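hey so u asked for the seq, here:
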Amino acid sequence: MSDIVGRIHSIETCGTVDGPGIRYTIFMQGCPLRCVYCHNPDTWAKDGKSVMKMQVGELLADIVKYKSYFRFSGGGVTLTGGEPLLQKEFAASLFEVVKREGLHTTLDTSGHDEIDSATKEVLKQTDLVLLDIKSINADTFKQVTGFPIDQTIRFANYLREENIAAWVRFVLVPGVTDSEEELHALARFLTTLDNVERVGILPFHQMGAYKWQDLGINYKLAGTPTPSLQETERVRDLFRGYGLPVK
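ran it, structure tokens below
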């Protein structure tokens, strides 16, 4: 188990935004989606230029160095990306040994997955899922990701059925995901998921735009503004109006 190899883009040893507490955040290499606002397009390819191939045992040896920080803050280990569910055997194995150390595990995913037996093994070792829902509207979802919405909806419902704790994250993009009708539809859908502990409304930003240029990829949102604080808070209030735990 400890010799299973994962393809890793980068590591943040003391992150604070991808789950509770202080976290050891591992950015996995490879993603099936092509989100138009992605701030990590350098993680798309399964074998990127800077990919690190690391064994579970190697990572664990580094993770335990920070164990006291994670325990003190209620933190732990987060797998993000890219898309961690492209490397299910690695994810399940890493989370299993991390949990033996008494640490919290978080999976950050788009939910674009078949939910096979390997997925279920990962989720058995997962304390919290950060589920990124790009839009509830099928046409908008495809416009944003390049793929149908069906798998993400099935994934969200599976988490509910299995009572797996989830934080939902939604990126507010002016002119793309901010339709009033679609916002209400997403809020209504989220009210059906009683396993959701938190809903995050994240304002679109341009901080990853330079990566698209460096990679020679056409960036369609170059002229798109960041939502104002007032507009972002208005949308948060909209979701709160449905009784959702917006943070």
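The longest helix spans residues 88-100. The chain is about 35% helix and 20% strand.
lmk if thats what u needed
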